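User: I'm preparing a small set of examples for a lab meeting where we compare how different chains pack in three dimensions. I only have the primary sequence for this one, and I'd like the structure in token form so I can line it up with the others. Please keep the answer compact; I'll paste it straight into my notes.
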Amino acid sequence: MKDKVDRCDLCGGELEPGQTTLEIWYRGELVVVRDVPADVCRQCGEAYLSAAVSEKLDRFLAQRHRYRPEQFLAVPQYSAVQLETA
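Assistant: Understood. Below is the structure token output for the 86-residue chain.
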């Protein structure tokens, strides 16, 4: 049993094992990876990856074209220049 409770760096909430979804720009391409194991803050939802998961993610991203995506998403893109006219 853990004696020390891990805390979120952002809000101080308690972390618990869970999963997260990552949106990563990799070599000019937006890649979405779901169901990534992480410690997730119960209070704000911030996710923390272990070194082992991060290393696996790096290897996956480098070889992602070997895998078939679950789905393709249409993602709108905007420019911050539009903020000036809003």
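A couple of notes for your slides: The first helix runs from residue 51 to 62. Strands lie at 15-26, 29-41, 47-48.

User: Perfect, thanks.
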